[in-house]
Amino acid sequence: MRRTPARASAPTAVERVRSILAAAHSMTVVCDGRHTEVRRLDGSGAMGHFHLHAPFEGTGAPAGARVPVRLELTDIAPTPVRDRLRARVTLTGLLAEPYDPDSTLSTCMEFGQGVLEDGSGRLYVTLHELEATELDPLATSEAGMLTHLVDEHAELVPLLLRLVRPLPDGGVLRALPAGVDRYSLTLRLEYRRTHRDVRLPFKTPVQHIDHVGPQIHALLSEARRLSHTGRLVT
């Protein structure tokens, strides 16, 4: 009997890197002995004027000297959870000349290696994987959606605890949304000395940002149907 492939419930490393590159508003460029903080406030994002291209594959050496460069980006939870650093992304490569932070032209970077680091370890991604991966439709709107949930609908967050399996005990001091992507909403459960993240998967992956609202409402409807007693959050 042919088995149906398991439905993805979390983004892959490549999907996460793709989202971080698209959503980051700042990064550190390390080139020619200089550390430059880059911020883009015009809506283009920190990566807005970097163009990544494949490594040189011709015969012999490419014309002109090339300068090593490293791009460092951090993924920070937009809500005030404990330990807000979710991941780090590092891209290494080569430039035709030292990085000029004042240039208004697109900076062409020959891609070398991409690294994602988080609490579970280190994973490597290639340029081909990044180019072949569809951008999560929620990537650039995640921060706004989560802060809206916390600021305007905080009373709904404890309700979502009813979906956590196994059910949390009374040791949970606080629960906050720590992330949302096309696959699920992530809650961070904070205890006195530790914390853990729990994914609440959507029924189907979100294909368009307009579809995330109904998916979250479906989670809330399911939570309301579940009967649960006991105080979970103080």
Keywords:
elongated, Split barrel-like, disordered C terminus, 2 domains, disordered N terminus, three-stranded antiparallel sheet, alpha+beta, 234 residues, Pnp Oxidase, Chain A
Task: Work out the radius of gyration.
Answer: 21 Å
Please report the first level of CATH classification, the CATH class of the largest domain.
Mainly Beta
| Count of alpha/pi helices | 5
End-to-end C-alpha gap? 49 Å
Q: Hey, roughly how much beta strand do the residues contain?
A: 25-35%
Unreliable residue runs? 1-5, 228-234
> In total, how many beta strands?
10
Level-2 CATH architecture of the largest domain: Roll
At CATH level 3, the topology of the largest domain is Pnp Oxidase, Chain A
Structural class: alpha+beta
Structural commentary:
- This protein has 234 residues and is α+β, with helices and mostly antiparallel strands.
- It has two domains: 13-132, Pnp Oxidase, Chain A (Roll); 142-225, PNP-oxidase-like (Split barrel-like), CATH 3.20.180.10.
- The protein has helices spanning 13-23, 127-132, 142-152, 157-160, 212-225; strands spanning 26-31, 34-39, 50-53, 67-76, 85-95, 107-118, 121-125, 174-180, 184-190, 195-201.
- Strands 1, 2, 3, 4, 5, 6 and 7 form a seven-stranded mixed beta sheet that branches. A three-stranded antiparallel beta sheet has the order 8-9-10.
- Strand 1 (26-31) and strand 2 (34-39) form a beta hairpin.
- It is elongated, with a radius of gyration of 21 Å.
- The protein starts with 12 loop residues before the first helix and ends in a 9-residue tail after the last helix.
